[in-house]
């Protein structure tokens, strides 16, 4: 199932900061368009962690695609112990949606 990348940019606003030549070449197999509850939690978490939060599926049977992952282009945020605990707490809240979260540096930093 292909994800609507234009819609995803409206649901996860930081993705608009990624140049189209990178964005449309990403491996999207594990991207998730978040529901309203997930979007609300992501916005809260982004403020608390001062980073950008991406939501991924962890239930999909992922095939290794020739395309690169988002984390191969951009730096993940360096989280301390308390921040990691907070992130894991939010992931537990979202467990019923079969998603995981990843935090990227703010501002986005190309590797």
Question: How is this structure best described in words?
Answer:
By secondary structure, this protein is of the alpha+beta class. The protein has one domain. It contains four helices and two strands. The chain has helices spanning 5-11, 20-23, 36-49, 81-93; strands at 52-57, 99-104. A two-stranded antiparallel sheet has the order 1-2. Helix 3 packs antiparallel against helix 4.
What layout of secondary structure does this protein have?
Elements: H1 5-11, H2 20-23, H3 36-49, E1 52-57, H4 81-93, E2 99-104
Antiparallel strand pairs: 1-2
Helix pairs in contact: 3-4
Structure summarized in a few sentences:
The protein has one domain.
Provide keyphrases for this structure.
4 helices; alpha+beta; 111 residues; two-stranded antiparallel sheet; single chain
Main β-sheet description: 2 strands, antiparallel
Helix content: 25-40%
Number of separate strands = 2
* Helix-strand topology string: HHHEHE
Q: State the strand order across the main sheet.
A: 1-2
Radius of gyration (Å): 13 Å
- Shape descriptor: globular
Task: Count structural domains.
Answer: 1
What are the low-pLDDT stretches, counting only 5+ consecutive residues below 50? none
Strand content: 5-15%
Count of helices?
A: 4
Mean pLDDT: 91
What structural category characterises the helix and strand content?
alpha+beta
Q: Termini distance?
A: 29 Å
Quaternary structure of the protein = single chain
């Amino acid at each position: 199932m292909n994800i609507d990348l234009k819609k995803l940019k409206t649901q996860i606003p930081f993705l608009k900061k990624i140049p189209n030549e990178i964005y449309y070449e990403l491996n999207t197999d594990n991207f998730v368009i978040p529901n309203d509850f997930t979007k609300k939690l992501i916005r809260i978490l982004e403020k608390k962690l001062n980073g950008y939060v991406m939501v991924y599926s962890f239930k999909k049977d992922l095939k290794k695609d020739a395309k690169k992952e988002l984390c191969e282009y951009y730096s993940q945020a360096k989280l301390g112990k308390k921040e990691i605990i907070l992130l894991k707490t939010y992931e537990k809240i979202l467990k019923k949606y079969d998603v995981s979260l990843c935090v990227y540096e703010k501002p986005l930093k190309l590797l």
